[in-house]
Structures are given as C-alpha cells and as structure tokens.
From TrEMBL:
<dbReference type="Pfam" id="PF00583">
    <property type="entry name" value="Acetyltransf_1"/>
</dbReference>
<dbReference type="GO" id="GO:0016747">
    <property type="term" value="F:acyltransferase activity, transferring groups other than amino-acyl groups"/>
</dbReference>
<dbReference type="InterPro" id="IPR050832">
    <property type="entry name" value="Bact_Acetyltransf"/>
</dbReference>
<protein>
    <submittedName>
        <fullName>GNAT family N-acetyltransferase</fullName>
    </submittedName>
</protein>
<dbReference type="InterPro" id="IPR016181">
    <property type="entry name" value="Acyl_CoA_acyltransferase"/>
</dbReference>
<feature type="domain" description="N-acetyltransferase">
    <location>
        <begin position="12"/>
        <end position="140"/>
    </location>
</feature>
<keyword id="KW-0808">Transferase</keyword>
<keyword id="KW-0012">Acyltransferase</keyword>
<dbReference type="InterPro" id="IPR000182">
    <property type="entry name" value="GNAT_dom"/>
</dbReference>
Amino acid sequence: MDWEGSTITRDVKIRKAQLKDTVSIRKVARITWRATYQELIPIKIQNQFLNVAYSDRNMKLRIDQTLFFVAEQEGEIVGFANATIKKDDAELSAIYVLPELQGHSIGSRLLQSVLSNLDHAGQLVVDVESGNQIGERFYH
C-alpha cells in the first residue's frame, strides 16, 4: 500500500473490532512489537507473549469482553487499541499503529475512541515499558 501523498487520517476509519479481524490484529501486533521492543525484549519472549495474548481464544475474549477498536484503511487493519474497564477505572492494555503510519494521529483517534466509551470509569490507567520511547512520547 502506498501511503505517500495520501490524506492518511481522513481515510482511516475507527471501528469496534470483530472476530474476523483477529488475523490482521495479530499481524499488526507482531510488526509493532518488533519495531517497538527490538532493543528491550528478547525476540523469544516477544513471541511467547504474542502467541498467548493474541491467540484465537484470548482474542475472542478480548473482543467480546473489553473495549477493542481497530483503525482500518482501504479494508486493512493498520492499528488497534484495547482497554479493560474495571470497577472504578480502566486499563489501556494495548495501542499499536503500524510504524510507517505513526505520527499521523491514528493512535490519538484510537485513544479517543477508548476514552469516549469508558462510561463510569473514573480514569484510564496506562503503563509504558521503560525504554519505550515511542510510547513515552505518545503519552506526554
């Protein structure tokens, strides 16, 4: 897909994730984890985590029971955000956008979708891995 010269944010649709998106979400997770954590987390540990967190079983649970949004352009998933609402607050579990599309407000739009659906939750808790400069810049 050629992103140069396109009006990226206008062409990206944010919507609730569906089970049919699982393979694409898994692909985005792997690509973004490689780019984000290559110097922080050994590849073997990345693979172990991703295999469990994005298994068919866990994806079904996450899509059915949590806030899970995808960013879609031209029929392709290019990012996603996932949050769990607890008793008094919510926790942002994941927010990832393909590396070549970062910096075009897609992550901000995904985050806004989560925030708009928090209902009674008083706050959104976010943890950023130490050394994750991309994540640190995004939240500051």
